[in-house]
Input
Amino acid sequence: MPEPIIQVRGLHKYFDRLHVVRGVDLDVAPGEVVVIIGPSGGGKSTFLRCLNLLEEPSAGRLVVDGIAVDAGESSKERHGRVREIRKRAGMVFQHFNLFPHMSALGNVVEAPVTVKGASREAATAKAEECLAWVGLSEKRDEYPSRLSGGQQQRVAIARALAMEPRIMLFDEPTSALDPELIGEVVAVMERLAKEGMTMVVVSHELHFARDVADRVIFMDKGVWGEMGPPDQVFTNPKEERTRQFLARILQDAR
Output
């Protein structure tokens, strides 16, 4: 077995008295696609944001691509490790978070220049390559207001890829899109998976989870309710709570 590229041990997250993530463990192998499903408010997005320290864990330990961070630790050296994790774990959000005053190309160029210290020439060449990869070369000079939601999300994926991450984290990347635009974003994610990118995805797109995931995790009330290959979780779930959730989601999709 290869060494996990993500290791999570005893992760807790509180918001004041609200216990959102309750002591979860997870290992993710290099190249594995893990999709986390579950009801709203179950802790999925908070868990994902803890993985690259956008949310500070209340307790527990993370090891991301060999870089370890313990909750509650505070030092200049730890701050450097957090920055390194964020370089290696790209994040794509539900809302695209593009800079409205920058073109598609400008949005993708910005992070390699400001975070990695790349030259603008090198960053522009990389950004053009990433925009081509997501099928948006012809939109390089358009501003976000002139792009559809699906195109904006593909720019956001290109922006994350421009940092050359080892891991991609997706937080409900299609939930803000009109139904007819979801497919173009899912197609890019499927291609990423085929090319061997390690991915942790929070999503309600059960077709994506069924077709692309190596493992599906059902999360509810801050804990893993069920974990296994897609066939097992979707066709023969062991937990009644998982069965209820899937039945409701599938009914809503009809």
The first strand starts at residue 6 and ends at 15. The two ends are 40 Å apart (CA to CA).
